[in-house]
Amino acid sequence: MKKILVIGAGDYQVPAIKRISELGYEAFCVDKNDKAPGFPFAKGFGIIDVCDKEACLRFAKEIDVDGVMTYGATITLPTVVYIAKNLGLFSLPAETAEISKSKYQIKKCLSEHGANIKGRFFEICTPDDARLKSVQFPCIIKPSDGSGSKGVVCVTKSEELDAAVETAFAAARNNEVYVESYIDGEEYSVEAFANGNDIYIYAIVKTDFRRVNGEVIYGHCLWLGISSDVETLICEEVKKAMNALGITMGPANFDIIVSKDDGKPYIIDVGIRNGQNLIASHIVPYSRGISELDNLIFACLGEPMSVVPMFKKNIATKLLIYHPGVIREILPYEHLIGTSHIVDIVMRKKVGDILPPYKTKSDTCGWVITEGETPELAYQYANEAREILKKYIIIESN
Question: What are the counts of helices (DSSP H) followed by strands (DSSP E) for the chain?
């Protein structure tokens, strides 16, 4: 059996560790957490800091790995590439892995290669950096190594600046923060995959986040509000960025704003990893017939992949966010799959779990996934399915 080492064994890496075994390979992993959730699913593991390149390399040599990879994370990429280069395995270029650690460096690279960058952006290393005096409003303050929008603040006036900078620095592991101009427009998430020089755009996803009558409505819908002309512009911009960043293997996830001023797409964030929020795990497979995880596993071994989309379907999701309380009962719901345009239900809670007021995705019951003849209908069906499932999850208020 071929052996694959996964750098990281946290919640994001568990699907990869499980899938490696399902595909007939032996999965190994490393993580500094001695109770990492991925350890029980691995053939073997090492309690090692994922950023300790030398220790991880020694472990890889001990088990004589045939491939090395990570999933759902960028902090682990430099270690993946370091091991691969030392052992002659397949991986991203070292420069790409290094730049993945800093969103500011990514943006700088894109700007230098002629990508659409609107307005000013600059890095600050202290909360009282003199360059903050020249900030124009509105602007965005971000940690250079942040993820999941943690520490990101939109500042509309000078009175808000100090607090925003403090928030960003509190979320920055490397004590680096950057400032960029605010772009007014529609935001989309784009999932792309590279196989050498071939780049595939798998999904352009519109996020739906709003509050209605005190309830949080949160979900995603493919190609909602995107014309064919704008889709072409987005695909061109993403492919240009992939080439500029040297992404030649595996997934990348982009946040893009289509400006109201000129209709052009502007890249505001890049994660050199698979998309979260079910994008890679469910939305891409259901909408394009592609498994990014399988292909990433095959890629690290240098084996053939199925990277060309098989079809293009309109898929939408909604998070199952309901009122806070204790889950007293979850009625059988599996029969709903295949009815009311529901293609899948991902339940993440069980009876007895406490639902707090919504702050993060861990405060939800799960997701429902729907398909429609058009993006608009898929979006409508997802809203309806969320209401249907509300009757199946009995929550007692605290």
Answer: 10, 19
Bond before 138 cis per omega within 30 degrees = yes
- In sequence order, the 6+-apart residues with CB closer than 8 A to the CB of 23 are 294, 297
Report how far apart the first and last C-alpha atoms of the chain are (Å, whole number). Answer: 51
Residues in the chain: 398
Six token digits for residue 349: 């809670």
Global confidence as pTM: 0.93
The tens-digit pLDDT sequence of the chain (398 residues) is 999 999 999 999 999 999 999 999 999 999 999 999 999 999 999 999 999 999 999 999 999 999 999 999 999 999 999 999 999 999 999 999 999 989 999 999 999 999 988 888 999 988 888 788 888 999 999 999 876 678 899 999 999 999 999 999 999 988 889 999 999 999 999 999 999 999 999 999 999 888 888 889 999 999 999 999 999 999 999 999 999 999 999 999 999 999 999 999 999 999 999 998 899 999 999 999 999 999 999 999 999 999 999 999 999 999 999 999 999 999 999 999 999 999 999 999 999 999 999 988 889 999 999 999 999 999 999 999 999 999 999 999 87
Cβ distance 227 to 189 under 8 Å?
no
Q: Which of 199, 143, 134, 138 is nearest to 166 (CA)?
A: 143
Closest CA relative to residue 206, chosen from 372, 72, 326, 317: 317
Tell me the DSSP string of 347-389.
Answer: E---TT-EEPSSSSGGGS-EEEEEEESSHHHHHHHHHHHHHHH
C-alpha pair distances (Å), 347 with each of 87, 148, 219, 344, 368: 40, 21, 15, 10, 8
Count CB atoms within 10 A of the CB of residue 105.
17
* Residue 29 token pair: 């992993």
| Whole-angstrom distance, CA of residue 139 vs CA of residue 108 | 17
